[in-house]
Write a structure and sequence with these properties.
Radius of gyration: 22 Å
Largest sheet: 9 strands, parallel
Oligomer: single chain
Number of strands: 23
Structural class: alpha/beta
Helix content: 25-40%
Low-confidence stretches: 1-19
Length: about 475
């Protein structure tokens, strides 16, 4: 087994046994990881999308340590209208490299775009060996990135559908979807046994929500190793957010797979960019996103926001008018004008990488306070906490550890961290503020402490 992927298997047992958070992952050093980032599209409704190093630097400064690249089936397969495109593969290589150069891991997700037509009802019947054709498309990716530690895994079927099939969602899942997942996992692990397989549930037909949840419940196990449950949640009713996530949590226990939210964030409307109040106004969206983020943080799940795009086009499938998942409002493929009423929530502070176990964490948007409880383990290496001071702490921030360590960053001086109070077992030089990535890097936690309570608070030497 290759070292860089040991952490996933280790995580599933150790986190459930020793820490409150059971949905985090582990890296090659055994550090506790909370994946967070964006869906990266290779095209939109206008055409191809291109990114450069500055876009990825911006991603990092928004808290990203993970990207999910949407694959186009039409450029990887022999489905009607599809053909393997070598230039497309080179483009994927570039995106993976851009991520790697900015300390961002990659997950690939297959979509059915780019073929002449994709009929789910025919696909499930597999009368023309559609499964093999689909898996062959995946094999192109599996073989290409089998030995690349920057690629974490593969989200193998995006939003599978029932549509007009005369079958229940439970039977479709148990008779067709789970056996397909098992087949895909088995074929993938022949090539790269240590990569993770991410999987989703059936995306139900319009009007068939249960508890305002568009995704059907999985009630039977997949019985495979190295799997991650990657549900989507586009919840627009605050009262259902926790209820939906509690159901996913129950499925996760049954599946014996941690949760990584593969996509989230109700789309914003064209009118939202121009309104403060009202049902579609920015205040309403900010509250919706904050309440969703709080549930994510309390559960300790990673989350991937759609989309890291500008706004060349909008879709029109909701009653509120034209809408989009793009987080930037400028009319380019890769944008820079943030929809700050959502991006400030998406880019909230959190513990990205912790040498040890994360027991709990939560960012309080009202007080701008990040609280973290950990069990440190300096043998695992350095830790990284995303703070996002440029947007959350323009007034500076203080780091409070237990009752005897206080350090702070004064943006007026811009000289790095200063120490106000420090115990004898701490070397302040082990705490580094990186303004480029907006991260606090901790080379070594205080010695001989079983638990640590950490707070990031606004202002200088703030003890409240």
């Amino acid at each position: 087994m290759k070292l860089q992927f040991i952490f996933f298997v280790f995580c599933f047992t150790s986190i459930m046994t020793f820490a409150q958070i059971k949905h985090g992952l582990r890296d090659e050093q055994g550090r506790h990881i909370i994946p967070r980032g964006f869906v990266v599209n290779t095209n939109d409704h206008v055409g191809e999308v291109f990114f450069d190093s500055d876009d990825y630097a911006r991603m990092v400064r928004m808290g990203a340590n993970t990207q999910v690249i949407r694959l186009e089936l039409g450029k990887l397969s022999n489905f009607p209208g599809g053909k393997l495109d070598q230039n497309y593969l080179k483009k994927l290589d570039d995106l993976v490299a851009l991520g790697k150069n900015h300390d961002i891991k990659t997950v690939f997700k297959m979509t059915v775009y780019g073929v002449d037509k994709f009929i789910w009802e025919e696909f499930w019947q597999n009368k023309k060996n559609e499964y093999s054709t689909y898996i062959d498309a995946w094999k192109v990716i599996w073989n290409r990135y089998a030995d690349d530690p920057a690629v974490l895994g593969y989200d193998v079927v995006n939003e599978p559908r029932k549509l007009t099939m005369d079958i229940s969602y439970e039977n479709l899942t148990n008779k067709y979807l789970i056996p397909l997942y098992q087949k895909i996992i088995d074929e993938s692990q022949k090539i790269n046994v240590d990569k993770m397989i991410l999987f989703q549930s059936i995306f139900m037909n319009k009007g068939e929500k249960i508890d305002n949840n568009q995704y059907s419940e999985i009630t039977a196990p997949i019985n495979r190793k190295n799997i991650i449950f990657a549900p989507h949640i586009y919840q627009n009713d605050i009262d259902f957010i926790k209820r939906n996530m509690d159901r996913f949590d129950k499925e996760s226990d049954m599946l014996k797979a941690p949760i990584l939210i593969g996509e989230w964030g109700f789309p914003t409307f064209a009118t939202t960019d121009t309104l403060i109040d009202g049902k579609l106004g920015q205040l309403k969206y900010r509250e919706l996103y904050i309440r969703t983020a709080e549930v994510f943080d309390r559960m300790g799940v990673g989350s991937i926001k759609a989309w890291f795009l500008g706004n060349r086009t909008m879709q029109h499938f909701l009653s509120g008018g034209p809408s989009t998942w793009s987080i930037f409002s400028d009319s380019t493929d890769a944008g820079t004008v943030e929809r700050k009423y959502i991006t400030d929530v998406i880019s909230r502070p959190f513990p990205q990488t912790i040498a040890g176990d994360i027991d709990s964490f939560l960012f309080n948007h009202a007080t701008r306070t990040l609280g973290i409880k950990i069990k440190p383990d300096n043998s695992k290496g350095a830790s990284k906490i995303f703070i996002g001071a440029n947007r959350h702490y323009p007034d500076g921030f203080s780091i409070l550890i237990d009752d005897d360590i206080v350090m702070y960053y004064n943006p007026l001086k811009n000289v790095g961290l200063e120490t106000y109070k420090c115990s004898k077992d701490v070397n302040p030089s082990n705490f580094i503020w990186d303004p480029q990535s907006q991260k606090l890097i901790v080379l070594k936690w205080p010695n001989n402490r079983i638990n640590l309570n950490i707070k990031i608070v606004p202002g200088l030497r703030n003890f409240d």
